[in-house]
Amino acid sequence: MTNHPEFMDHPGNAALLTGQHGEYLLPSQNPVQLITPEGAIRHRGDGHSAGNFKDSYPMPSAETLRRGYAGLVLGRRINEQAGALVRQGRMAVYPSSLGQEACQVAAWMVLESSDWLFASYRDTVAIMGRGVSAAEAFESLRGDWHSGFNPYDYNTALPTTPLATQLLHAVGVAHAAKLRGEDTVVLAMCGDGATSEGDFHEALNFAAVFHVPAVFLIQNNQYAISVPLIHQNVAPSLAHKAIGYGMPGERVDGNDLAALLTVLGTAVDRARKGGGPALIEAHTYRMEAHTNADDSTRYRSAEEVAQWVPKDPLKRLRKYLSDAGELGSEHEETFTVAADGVAKQLRDGLNAPSSPDPLDMFRFVYSEPTPQLRKQSRQLAAELAAVAVASATTAAGGHGTEARS
Amino acid sequence: MTAVPALAPVEISGRQELTFAKALNLAMADAMAEDPTVLVFGEDVGTLGGVFRITDGLKKRFGEERCFDTPLAESGIVGMATGMAINGMRPVVEMQFDAFAYPAFEQIASHVAKMGNRTRGRVRLPLVIRIPYAGGIGGVEHHCDSSEGYYVQTPGLTVLTPSTISDAYILLRDAIASPDPVVFMEPKKLYFSKGSVDVDDLRARYASAAGTGGALASQSTIGQAAVIRAGTDATLIAYGPSVAPALAAAETAAAEGRSLQVIDVRSLVPYDEATIDAAVRATGRAVVIAEAPGFASMAAEIAAGIQERCFHSLAAPVLRVTGFDVPYPAPKLEHYYLPGVDRILDAVDQLQWEHS
Ligand SMILES: Cc1ncc(C[n+]2csc(CCOP(=O)(O)OP(=O)(O)O)c2C)c(N)n1
Ligand SMILES: [Mg+2]
Predict the structure, then answer these.
(1) Residue A224 alpha carbon to ligand 2 centre in Å
(2) Whether residue A200 sits in one domain with residue A108
(3) Is residue A287 located within the same domain as residue A261?
(4) A132 and A63 in a common domain
(5) How confident is the model at residue A85 (pLDDT cuts 50, 70, 90)?
(6) pLDDT (tens digit, 9 = 90+) per residue, B289-343?
(7) Which parts of chain B have pLDDT scores under 50?
């Protein structure tokens, strides 16, 4: 492992030096939870032993949690608004993170703007947390192009669907940063099902072997479309996989923003100081179907879904902050107004007329279009011109496309 | 690493007898010396110098950060290279053999090829995937595939394949300098072929664009076929491992009084239809030669394109001499499979000479 001086002071390294290497790589005995679903303090996180946690996971400050709560309110609003827009036919598909907002918010909160985020198709809320506007974040879902923003503007990769493939890109970005001596950290996200893919394994192994500053966050929302985790994997937990790669793993209550912030924050901090990668498994639940195209009643019961309602990440943080006297109606008011503003931008963005230029298909495939692409572009341009002439003729009282003959 | 200054080039100059392998090695060494963002990695490429020794000495010369071994995972190699290219590097990765690049195919097809288009040109991936390919070496199964068809069928990839010592150097330098991802197919049967080249001349192409790591754009071989033998009766179009049998066939034909022109396609994508069409229009006859199975192949594309564009200049249908549509055969059978001089000349004989 690293001999970086700052890592030598880290409790994890102390464990390594005292021969408890394996123990430290294994996740804590219980998933880390600081605030119970009822909004009570479970642990202040100020000692290792209290919750059988292997690290001291301090409770974030009230101010941080309030900022996080604002993020949850916004995230929930984005999910609800996007769902409504799908139902109205404004966009074809939306993979919702409703119920998973604590993971979404923690992901952007633990990163600096110079860090990188590699997320999945379900993580629009996390991506917007990086500063990506509603219009940019939803452009690909609207169907105009496969992307809506410049990754370099936000150090945020474009989400795509091939499962787990982005984890390797994250490792590469982290590796390049490390070679240049930068202190960038890369957060890479995937779902529970994606952990079965070969690229998940290759990414974690590469990250550990090259000791890169990458943190992997699995949102275990219990399902991969219809397939429950038990049919995917029978390891003691997904976080236990970390030991197989020689990196620390940790489990965390994925609906407890306080726990997520402290656990992810610890891993990010350690990576930044040269301590290498880590794997975090967050237990959460996908409250809606996989996408609007999916019917989740075919594979899970209403009772099961209902069990997760009381574990809602928003309710619990609201209760905790209110009880602590840290959240007043004026805060709620401000956060709601802000969320409404973003929801409006989202509606406006999707309602705005759009007419992607068909010739863009040829422009970006290579830095310079090949002779073949130039020819094909000219062909399509000619077809478009002919259609334009025909419709002008129709408008002028002619016979439309019949004018061709 | 940022502090690493450009290094002096490897001390070799003037006219030299080089192997194809050494020319590739020199191309990487020169690119690495000039541009500190050029990195070389893959399986066994570090201490060993690669199973074919193409990366010999690079780790020693440029250090472990610039040339290193990876775990055995091809998707991992290409996926990590993608991330490094996103973040300012120019990775040159080695796949150990053609068939062992298949685990990387998802990364290549879904990300490497698509990144530039997906991002409207905002993220370009200047990376090179080197793949030793094709047969003729008596290799066991999975060591002799001509897999170029998968890559040429994937928009967004540049696909190059050299057949001469000087092209080994030039095409690889151009690949490394390209802003777009290049699949660089190396005919492994040629690795230890030798030829005399002037190293100073090769390097001179790049001197004028010093610091950019590449030749001036106007000199790049990307998209440029080469007419490598003049001829007036028919045109043989070949690439990579099939160039040598095409030249041999032209030599034999010359002795029989038939003058065959030979074209080395070199750049499969972008494809140089201007040069190739002009050549075929001049001779009026063409045979396309490639080792890969012919069905739905690069050879099929070349033949179809010529027929579409040059129909009125043709005196005979364009013929193809390719591998059979079978998995690459066992070593004792490969010579039945490979397009050789006789099969090429048989095809030439069928070019309806009675009509000329
Ligand atoms: C390589 C690949 N195989 C299959 C799919 C189709 N697919 C899309 S999402 C999904 C389920 C993924 O589940 P999980 O990783 O748990 O993420 P979640 O959707 O629950 O967030 C599948 C099978 C895909 N996108 N990529
Ligand atoms: Mg899931």
Answers:
(1) 4
(2) yes
(3) yes
(4) yes
(5) very high
(6) 999 999 999 999 999 999 999 999 999 999 999 999 999 999 999 999 999 999 9
(7) 1-5
Burial of B90 (0-12, 13-18, 19+ CB in 10 A): buried
Name every chain A residue with its beta carbon within 8 A of the beta carbon of B119. Answer: 147, 150-151, 158, 364
Tell me the residue range of the domain where A390 lies: 360-404
Residues A364 and A325 in one domain: no
Summarised one tens digit per residue, pLDDT across range B127-176 is 999 999 999 999 999 999 999 999 999 999 999 999 999 999 999 999 99
Q: Which of residues 226-285 of B touch A (CB under 8 A)?
A: 269-274
Decide if A216 contacts A204 (C-beta within 8 A).
Answer: yes
Assembly ipTM: 0.94
A298 shares its domain with A389 = no
Atom of ligand 1 nearest to the CA of A232: 16
Question: Which residues in chain A (219-278) have CB-CB distances under 8 A to chain B?
Answer: none
A274 strand-pairing partners: none
Same structural domain, A221 and A364? no
In angstroms, the separation between the Cα of residue A157 and the nearest Cα of chain B is 9
Same domain, A287 and A345: yes
**Residue A371 scores a pLDDT above 50:** yes
The Cα–Cα gap between A282 and A106 comes to 11
Give the model's pLDDT for residue A55. 85
Q: Which residue of B has its CA nearest to A167?
A: B79
Distance CA B214, CA B217 (A): 8
- Residues A330-353: tens digit of each pLDDT: 999 999 999 999 999 999 999 888
| Domain residue limits, chain B | 15-219, 226-355
Q: Which of A351, A370, A386 is the last residue of a domain?
A: A351
Ligand nearest A120 Cα, by number?
A: 1
Same domain, A189 and A316: yes
Domains B15-219 and B226-355 share a fold: yes
Output the six-digit token pair for B71. 């775990």
**Nearest alpha-carbon partner for A253 in A62, A65, A100, A70:** A100
- Bridging pattern class, strands A223-224 and A227-228: antiparallel
Alpha-carbon Rg for chain A, nearest whole angstrom, is 24
Question: Residue B340, Cβ neighbours under 10 Å: how many?
Answer: 17
Pocket of ligand 1 contains residue A224 by CB under 6 Å: yes
Check which CATH number belongs to the domain holding A344 and give it.
Answer: 3.40.50.970
A371–B270 C-beta distance less than 8 A = yes
Instruction: Decide: A293 in ligand 1 pocket, CB within 6 A.
Output: no
Question: What predicted TM-score, i.e. pTM, was given to this entire model?
Answer: 0.94
Residue in chain A lying closest to B103 (CA): A198
Nearest-angstrom CA–CA distance, B351 and B285: 7
Question: With an 8 Å Cβ cutoff, are A364 and B85 in contact?
Answer: no
Mean pLDDT of A381-395: 91
Cβ of residue A193 lying under 6 Å from some atom of ligand 1: yes
Q: Is A313 helix (H, G, I), strand (E, B) or coil?
A: helix
Q: Nearest CA to A73 among A18, A146, A129?
A: A129
> Which of these CATH numbers, 3.40.50.970, 3.30.2130.10, 3.40.50.300, 3.40.80.10, describes B15-219?
3.40.50.970
Q: What is the CATH number of domain B226-355?
A: 3.40.50.920
Query: What's the domain count of chain A?
Result: 2
| Confidence category of residue A398, pLDDT binned at 50, 70, 90 | low
From B142, B143, B312, B335, active-site residue: B143
Counting ligands in written order, which one lies closest to the CA of residue A200?
1
